[in-house]
Specification:
The chain has 660 residues and is mainly beta. It contains six helices and 37 strands. The two termini are 46 Å apart. GO terms for molecular function: siderophore uptake transmembrane transporter activity. It is found in: Cell outer membrane.
């Protein structure tokens, strides 16, 4: 296995070299199917009026093992493109995920505090997160991805695929998939610098350069975020100490066309984050303390794709690594460390053919086979020392059919082999079709599996002891929806019902974790609307109703019954000034309250509404001024019991860009 260590070391060294050698990285001025979107997808995001996609032909990367148009996806999927993110002046990606139906976000404090994202009532570690084709879920952090540290650094698109996707992507995709794709280089060498500052002594500097032709492309971007922040423990409960946050992220994305039918791509990503935190005391909750957490994440992927038979037969090969190191300090003294590493090898082959149906060559078939092997390492030291490994291999078969560009079917099956648990089988079926020129029907059914995380099995802290007897969580999901396209609004309205049955749900119990003996049920309705009534105006909205039952008559915590959002963006007649405004509503939801012995009871948190506004003015093709106000109404609320949230706050900044 020595060659694996060499490969990993090379990736990390390359990342560090990019940071050290490039004076741009820290300037204070400003395939496999999930790797990158196609040219059509990129082109579809270039309209100055585009935000959330309303084009049914928009390419969706994560909805199948190959890139498919959104209209061909039987699964429920939402796509937010770069213009949507820029018009809303999104800096923390978790903030914009609140606009997506079926998604609930909870942050335990201010910027940099642990941030969880749940899809359709599934737990946060049941959502698989990709960044440029790399699985970034943290093996050392309960198997979930901490969205606190994901900044909008040259992101091209955000895809959210809802429902069980384990048949495609394996264990962590039991609840859904979030796929982040960053921008690739194009055209002559060009760059962009952004500088901004505002409330809580916050300042952020970002820099990017990129270039690309038909033969190669590269993009290098970096950002520094620094804020004094707010108290992680709720100020309304008497806590006053500010908890700051620092984030330095660098991303490098490149590719080369070696031959007409052979391409090679490389992605490298490095993150350093430092956030002040507060203690949690049984019977009280979060309280001021002198603690902080440092996170270092390094990831990379090298992949190649070979096309044969005039692109009818393709082969993709890749290797990726994600390495996360978390350190906890109290009054400057290190007291707990966790490290999680995932090394993944993957191979995929796709074969395409067309056959006749009713004397027409309009029946397109696609056959896919994929094989994956993952090696996970978990290490923790502090209260005790734990060093564990787990190996997994997965094999996928998928068939897809396009019947006359009107009806679309996929059938997927997966076999997973695991060194710690019983082998598992999962499946997924989808159908999408046009009932007429304006109505699209979509439905999906599938099963999911989530293996207990290394921490749940073997972790140890003063308040937690792992349970090595935990069994994998399993679910069965189905949904049925109808999408109605309104020509006059250049948009659509979608209504979808979803239902999930969960077996062996893992929950905390005292100082450990257990599998619930009863089946849990989750069901609900998602309503979404995307419209572009004029060339200058865009309006998007969503509403979700979620009903949860843990099998004992209790609601699952931190899953609001009702969420809603509305967002509008208007370009003034001068074609230079844009006004964007939005509101996000989160209804009542339960959370846990702990006594002095960490016995818990459920309490209900109040509903809240956040109103945000943004303004930008394009002075010329090179310079843009912008500003935004978040929580305009200065709403007081708690997302997590006893943890603080930000009041009204704002930022202003300038972007300068140009090229050769």
């Amino acid at each position: 296995m020595q060659y694996l260590k060499v490969f990993k070391t090379s990736l990390l060294a390359s990342t560090i070299t990019s940071i050290v050698m490039s004076p741009l990285a820290y300037a204070v001025t400003s395939t496999n199917t999930v790797e990158t979107a196609t040219t059509e997808a990129t082109a579809a995001t270039e309209s100055t009026n585009a935000t959330a996609t309303n084009d049914p032909r928009e390419i969706v990367v994560s909805a199948s093992r190959v890139e498919v148009a959104r209209e061909a996806s039987g699964s429920s999927v939402s796509v937010l493109d770069a213009d949507y993110l820029e018009q809303n002046q999104v800096r923390l990606v978790s903030d914009v995920l609140r606009d997506i139906p079926g998604v609930a976000v909870t942050r335990s404090g201010g910027a940099g505090a642990p941030t969880q994202v749940r899809i359709r009532g599934a737990e946060a570690n049941q959502t698989l997160v990709f960044i440029d084709g790399i699985e970034v879920n943290d093996v050392a952090n309960s198997g979930e991805y901490n969205f606190a540290n994901l900044l909008n650094l040259e992101i091209e698109r955000v895809e959210v695929l809802r429902g069980a996707q384990s048949a495609l992507w394996g264990s962590d995709a039991m609840g859904g998939v979030i796929n982040i794709v960053t921008k690739k280089g194009k055209g002559a060498l060009n760059g962009k610098v952004t500088v901004e500052g505002g409330s809580y002594s916050t300042h952020q500097e970002s820099l990017s350069i990129n270039a690309g032709t038909d033969d190669y492309h590269y993009a290098l971007s970096g950002t520094l975020l620094n804020t004094d922040g707010i108290s992680t423990a709720s100020e309304a409960r008497g806590n006053t100490e500010k908890d700051g946050y620092k984030n330095a992220t660098v991303n490098f994305k490149s590719g080369i066309q070696v031959l007409d039918n052979l391409s090679v791509d490389l992605v490298l990503r490095h993150l350093d984050a430092d956030v002040d935190t507060d203690a949690f005391v049984g019977g009280i909750g979060a309280v001021d303390s002198d603690e902080n957490s440092e996170t270092t994440q390094q990831s990379g992927k090298l992949s190649a794709k070979l096309d044969l038979m005039d692109e009818q037969w393709s082969h993709s090969l890749g290797v990726s690594v994600n390495d996360t190191d978390n350190k906890l300090f109290n009054s400057g003294a290190l007291y707990y460390t966790t490290e999680g590493k995932k090394l993944k090898y993957e191979y995929q082959t796709d074969f395409f053919l067309t056959s006749s149906l009713m004397d027409k060559d309009d029946f397109d078939h696609r056959f896919t086979f994929a094989a994956e092997h993952e090696e996970e390492d978990f290490y923790s030291k502090g209260f005790s020392t734990t060093d564990k490994e787990m190996d997994m291999s997965g094999f996928v078969l998928e068939y897809g059919a396009d019947i006359g560009e009107r009806f679309y079917v996929t059938v997927s099956g997966r076999r997973d082999l695991n060194s710690l648990f019983q082998n598992a089988n999962t499946y997924r079926l989808t159908f999408a079709g046009w009932a007429n020129d304006n109505v699209r029907i979509h439905t999906s059914n599938g099963t999911g599996i989530k293996n207990p995380t290394m921490f749940e099995l073997f972790g140890f802290t003063p308040n937690y002891t792992g349970n090595s007897e935990l069994r994998p969580e399993k679910n069965t999901t189905w949904d049925l929806g109808s999408e109605y396209h309104v020509d006059a609004l250049d948009g659509y309205v979608d209504l979808t019902y979803f239902h999930t049955d969960v077996d062996n749900l893992i929950v905390g119990a005292g100082n450990t974790a257990i599998n619930l003996p009863s089946d849990s049920k989750i069901q609900g309705v998602e309503l979404s609307m995307v419209s572009n009534p004029t060339e200058s105006l865009r309006i998007d909205g969503s509403f979700t109703y979620t009903d949860t039952d843990d099998g004992n008559g209790n609601e699952l915590v931190r899953r609001p019954k009702h969420t809603a959002s509305i967002n509008g963006s208007y370009l003034l007649s001068n074609d230079q000034t844009r006004i964007t405004a939005g509101a996000q509503y989160v209804g009542k939801r339960d959370d846990y309250q702990f006594d002095a012995f960490f016995n818990r009871t459920q309490v209900t948190l109040s509903e809240y509404t956040l109103v945000n506004v943004a303004l930008s003015h394009q002075i010329n093709e090179h310079v843009e001024l912008f500003g935004r106000v978040n929580n305009l109404l200065d709403e007081e609320y708690e997302e997590v019991l006893t943890y603080g949230t930000m009041g009204i706050n704002g930022m202003v900044g300038i972007t300068v860009k140009g090229g050769l």
